[in-house]
Amino acid sequence: MARQFISVSSITYAMKGKSILRNHGIYADIMKTSKINDQKGCGYSLVLVKRVDEAVKILQENNINILSINDGGE
Amino acid sequence: MIYFDNSATTFPKPRSVYQAVNNSMQNFAANPGRSGHKMSLKAAEMVFNCRDAVASFYNAENVENIIFTANCTYALNTVIRGFLHVGDHAVVSDLEHNSVLRPLQDMTKRGITYSVAQVVHGDFEQTVDNFRKAINEHTKLFVITHASNVTGTILPVSRIIALAHQYGIKVLVDTAQTSGVLEIDVQKMNADFLASAGHKGLMGPMGTGILYVKNPEVLSPLVCGGTGSSSLELTQPDSMPDKFESGTSNFPGICGLHKGIEFLNNTTLKKIHNHEFSLLTSLYNSLSKMQHIILYTPQPDAEHQAPLLSFNIEGVLSEETAEILSSKYNIL
Q1: What's residue B232's pLDDT?
Q2: Residue B223: is its pLDDT beyond 90?
Q3: DSSP string of B198-263, one letter each residue
Q4: Which residue segment(s) compose the domain that A36 sits in?
Q5: CA B285 to mean position of chain CA atoms
Q6: What is the pTM for the complete model shown?
Q7: Facing residues of A30 across strands?
């Protein structure tokens, strides 16, 4: 399955998002992403292979600012 | 050796603190939040875990409202210099540390004014009233210590904050002497800003400080620079905590601080406070029976005094007293 990259504004939000998703039974990796996901330059993304829509909804409900969602060019 | 200097920095630290510092330096000390390799991500995770522990310790609304600083002075300066503008007025207590008074005094050159409200030991009502009298139409900030670093005198922080908020005034609380000793809940207290040292009651290493900010948008950063985020933009990121954490963090110190907070949680603040207060009372009672000893506070009571004591000997400079205790009796 294709990976989806949910780009957030800081490593802290990435860690917080990962922790929140884990509490909902969704596992995400954290990757440093550059211009692919974030026009402002380097940042961090939560990387998921499934339950992406559900994860986005959960993150938004927890005030995690999502910068972009894409497949990272894969 | 008897160590009396815990208000300057606690000693010894829990063994787990030393081990965490050593372990982080030897095994995980990549730059957290700057790279994508596994050691950097592990380091970032350890910083996040400490931030999360600090947020829980103070019952902060969000983990990102906790900012790591170099020390408490840096945290206090971040608010004093980042919040006040030309024409603004601040009120401080007469028990403030130079880390509050000096930046405010420096800012008088830039059109900031401030007043000093007297704290009356043991009389919360009168203390709050003195703050009320110091307010003027330009007052934007109160800066108050939770407890004096010299006498241990506790201020009625929640009541002073309630007073300030009636007038739309924000409050910065300095908890350098009370974090790790008294229960602190920023939401119950309703503090706008809270600063602390990591190396005193929190049992962490020196070079660690904490700043809690309820509403980051009201505050400008003291220092701008690299944050590991939005690196193509010249403007400082608004996202928290990056807005206030430019430059590489004190990663080993933060790992040690995390273990210090774990120690407090496992031991419980109630047990620590009861132990320290019994030592304080015992010392006070013994010193008060000695001739020529000067004590600066009344008989300690837990509501009005943190477990901290100052004393001196009549006719002897405090530095001389400290030197004699150190060289002759190994009392530091």
Answers
A1: 83
A2: yes
A3: SSSTT---TT-EEEEES-GGG---SS----SSSTT-SSPP-STTGGG--S---HHHHHHHHHHHHH
A4: 4-70
A5: 29
A6: 0.95
A7: A46
Contact A15 B242 (CB under 8 A): no
Report CB contact under 8 Å: A13, B239: yes
Q: Chain B residues with CB-CB distance to A under 8 A?
A: 32-33, 35-36, 40-41, 44-45, 48, 51-52, 62-64, 227-233, 237, 239-242
CA–CA min distance A51, chain B (Å)? 23
Nearest CA in chain B to A10: B229
* Residue in chain A lying closest to B51 (CA): A12
User: Which is nearest to B153 in space by CA: B312, B307, B275, B318?
Assistant: B307
**CATH number, domain at A63?**
3.30.70.1530
The answer to whether the Cβ–Cβ distance between A11 and B229 falls below 8 Å is yes
Please tell me the distance in Å from B248's CA to the nearest CA on chain A: 13
Distance from CA of A33 to the nearest CA of B (A): 8
DSSP secondary structure letters along B69-131: ESSHHHHHHHHHHHH--TT-EEEEETT--HHHHHHHHHHGGGT-EEEEEPP-TT-HHHHHHHH
Domains of chain B listed by start with CATH number: 20-265 (3.40.640.10), 268-329 (no CATH)
List, for residues B55-103, the tens digit of each pLDDT value: 999 999 999 999 999 999 999 999 999 999 999 999 999 999 999 999 9
Distance of alpha carbon B290 from the chain centroid? 33
Q: Grade residue A35 by pLDDT with cuts at 50, 70 and 90.
A: low
B17 by Cβ neighbours in 10 Å (0-12 / 13-18 / 19+) ranks as: buried
In degrees rounded to 5, what are phi and psi of residue B294? Answer: -100, 125
The structural domain count of chain A equals 1
